[in-house]
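Hi D.,

Good news: the full-assembly prediction came through. Inputs first.
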Amino acid sequence: MLVLVVDSSTPAVTAALVEVSADDVVSRAYRCTVDARAHGELLAPQVDAVLADADARPRDLTAVVAGLGPGPFTGLRVGLVTAATMGQVLGIPTYGVCSLDAIGYPAASGEPVLAASDARRKELYWAVYDGAGQRIVGPEVSTPSVAAARARELGATIAVGDGAHRYAEILDLPVRVEPRYPDATVLALLAAERIRAGASSERLTPLYLRRPDAVAATGRKPVLP
Amino acid sequence: MADEPLILGIETSCDETGVGIVRGHTLLADALASSVEEHARFGGVVPEVASRAHLEAIVPTMDRALTEAGVTLADIDAIAVTSGPGLAGALLVGVAAAKGYAVAAEKPIYGVNHLAAHVAVDTLEHGPLPEPAIALLVSGGHSSLLLVDDLARGVTPLGATIDDAAGEAFDKVARLLGLPFPGGPPIDREARAGDAAAIAFPRGLTAAKDLAAHRYDFSFSGLKTAVARWVEARQRAGEPVPVADVSASFQEAVCDVLTSKALAACRAQGIETLVIGGGVAANSRLRAMAEQRAEKYGIQVRVPRPKLCTDNGAMVAALGSHLVAAGVAPSRLDLPADSALPLTTVSV
Ligand SMILES: [Zn+2]
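Then the structure:
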């Protein structure tokens, strides 16, 4: 089963084609560009490119998997709307996966791990995974020092992800180099059971974690002195 | 005609998620979802709230449009989408959606200018637009006077607001009078019972000294302040505010400036067609005054019905249809959402 994977929750704009079989999940084509300011420009051409790379047509797709974030809002929505609209045209199901899982799950190797991505405004999106790669806390958004304290409480001995690189000093944990951004094959792997079972399509709702910045209108200032 | 191309249009530049479908100049579907109620308590459109709403609304709105038109995405010949100007995050959802549809359905995509689409939508109601024409586009986000020589290739800006948009002035005055947001419809309603000559509010940039540098520009900030002063003075004197008279006099001042400058542009250029679009074009006084004044000069005023004046997907489809008919090449798949897309760029 040929599956399209998209993730735009981090500066890495990712599109991939993954073959999901009864007992395996294998990458067929993969395009990733790190550019925090051009998600809208980059993603669709990359989807087009992975289809061409795999010599496939859109109608060959069985499902679409999308990283739900958390991630900076504007970029994150690009991946989700791309997945949702393509699913609609092709009449195929869409499945969502927490993007941090595609960093934390492959990084786990026996001991708890903190996975973090950059939330801007000097904050991190983060989650903690047990030694087997199961998420035990998160996703949350907070300052790096709060994330570090929580991770220690949970016994994390290592940190992973772009946010961990960026705030390595404050986190004060050894940083695992890879994956720095959500791994597309892992996103498909984490949805593989649903794909194989032909589970019903999911609404792709972003993991925003933050409320919109907006202040309710208050009393008007008088113009007369 | 069945052999004309079937064009889909997607609009998300502000708080309306619109999907329209046209064949040639025939409107087949115009589906709309609005987040206006979510913005009401903020007294204006909150960009992040609008963007979130677009993401939720786009797929169901597309479904409704396709059902209404009785077609599938496979039948569509090209997809047009507003690439600007507008709210950056809101535009991005529509552009990404259009690309998703275009890639999956293997169709060409046209990134188009929102303002040019406000002009093009009139063709759905009144047929092909005589060129050149003058267009007056007035809404909560824009107030522009344009020379339309060739809608498929270029539009020349003649003037624009130097401060508030016309629709913004309606919103602010409505708030001052305790009327709901958006302010256009309630002020229009109140004004019907009021006296438009009751209060002499200022007409911005119409004095001889202003006309030299701002012949076709607008200014509504001074008018808004004048209304606020007048209302406050009343309140301080402990007198009731005559909402109908203030609404009518304010509306008269806005419509007076808009129509006189638009018609002056037509006459200066010897142009016989004036198109009015944007949300404020739904104002009943603006329509009536424009028609009444234009008649004297033999100028034809074209105003589409109110539902087509406000932001919608049909206008984008109409412009897309015009571009396809004119043989304009489609956009590239990496087309950007450009919040400041200049008027001179009709398609990117
Ligand atoms: Zn508009």
